[in-house]
């Protein structure tokens, strides 16, 4: 009980001013909303909120809780045909096409170990501090996989947006080696090409380029600002909140200028922007049981206190137009 109070005290300052704000809920609960329901477990509530507070994606992505370890569903491929008929004529029969797909859950988490010496000499609050650092690392690692995950490279992870988005939903900024300056008109095209878009996803560097374009009269692009679910200032373009990613748990840029461009033998100096539709029937997180937090106490094999955080999770893109990727963008000022 003493350690639980210390953990709550360490995190309460971070969250107490934000608990009255809601995360965006579009069909399922975001982690921010789920944490509010964890009134009986202070540690679990604090860790869930720390997960969400460390990632714009986790703060806004709604999650559905499913039974079992996978979800089977049908994704619409094409609509049935329609037509007109004359008197005493028949319609030509036509049906739509549904593709059966399966989204399997993966296991994400980690063990949070703090040496007993640290706790005994510096106080129980030190355990909470180190646990908070570990949870933040887990959150950043998950966020990277949401974008860059590749099940072919590592079968223990899910495919991210970069692997999933193909065909017409993948729009190149140009064909120059190293990438091209993004045109605002291409950004607007990607927004129009996304079904019921709710958010933009980009790096902080890209967001700076966009706000720079908004201040340039020859380029344009209207930017507004509003508080997010944690009360932080959030940029909004074309009525779409801008979600940003920065560095992963290894301090490497998640959406840096290190992607290959739309050019033969291209150099890896380009980046991407994503237009997302988050919600029911679009992009939605999947989980079984939510974030599980267990205090295992002091280990017999080592003088450390261990807390285990584990999460059976994944996400699905339930409509082929729920996400659009603009790729091959260079680190240059946007153009009209």
Folded structure, characterized:
This protein is 28% helix and 29% strand. The chain is α+β, with helices and mostly antiparallel strands. It folds into 2 domains: 2-67 and 105-156 and 293-312, no CATH class; 165-281 and 320-329, 2-Layer Sandwich (capsid protein of prophage fold). The strands form 3 sheets. Strands 5, 6, 7, 8, 9, 10, 11 and 15 form an 8-stranded mixed sheet that branches. Strands 1, 4, 12, 13 and 14 form a 5-stranded mixed sheet that branches. A two-stranded antiparallel sheet has the order 2-3. Helix 1 (2-15) runs parallel beside helix 3 (42-53), helix 1 (2-15) crosses helix 6 (125-148) and helix 3 crosses helix 6. The longest helix is centred in the middle third of the chain and has 24 residues, at 125-148. 36% of the residues are buried.
């Amino acid at each position: 009980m003493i350690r639980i109070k210390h953990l709550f005290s360490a995190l309460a300052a971070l969250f107490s001013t934000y608990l009255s704000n809601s995360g965006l809920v579009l069909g399922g609960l975001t982690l921010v909303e789920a944490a509010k329901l964890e009134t009986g477990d202070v540690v679990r509530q604090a860790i869930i909120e720390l997960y969400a507070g460390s990632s714009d994606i986790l703060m806004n992505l709604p999650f559905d809780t499913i039974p079992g370890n996978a979800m089977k569903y049908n994704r619409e491929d094409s609509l049935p045909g329609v037509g007109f008929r004359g008197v005493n004529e028949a319609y030509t029969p036509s049906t739509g096409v549904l593709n059966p797909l399966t989204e399997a859950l993966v296991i994400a988490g980690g063990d949070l170990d703090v040496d007993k010496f640290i706790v005994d000499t510096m106080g129980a609050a030190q355990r909470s501090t180190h646990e908070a650092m570990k949870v933040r690392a887990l959150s950043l690692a998950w966020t990277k996989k949401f974008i860059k995950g590749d099940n072919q490279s590592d079968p223990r992870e899910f495919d991210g947006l970069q692997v999933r988005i193909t065909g017409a939903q993948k729009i190149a900024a140009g064909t120059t080696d190293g990438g091209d300056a993004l045109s605002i008109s291409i950004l607007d095209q990607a927004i129009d090409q996304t079904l019921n878009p709710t958010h933009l996803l980009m790096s902080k560097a890209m967001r700076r380029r966009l706000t720079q374009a908004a201040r340039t009269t020859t380029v344009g692009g209207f930017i507004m600002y509003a508080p997010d679910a944690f009360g932080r200032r959030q940029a909004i373009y074309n009525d779409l909140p801008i979600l940003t990613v920065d560095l992963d748990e290894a301090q490497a840029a998640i959406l840096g200028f290190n992607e290959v461009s739309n050019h033969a033998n291209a150099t890896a100096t380009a980046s991407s922007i994503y237009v997302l539709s988050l919600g029911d029937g679009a992009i939605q997180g999947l989980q079984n049981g939510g974030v599980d937090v267990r205090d295992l106490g002091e280990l017999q094999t080592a003088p450390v206190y261990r807390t285990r955080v584990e999460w059976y999770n994944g996400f699905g893109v339930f409509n082929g137009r729920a996400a659009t990727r603009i790729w091959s963008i260079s680190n240059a000022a946007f153009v009209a």
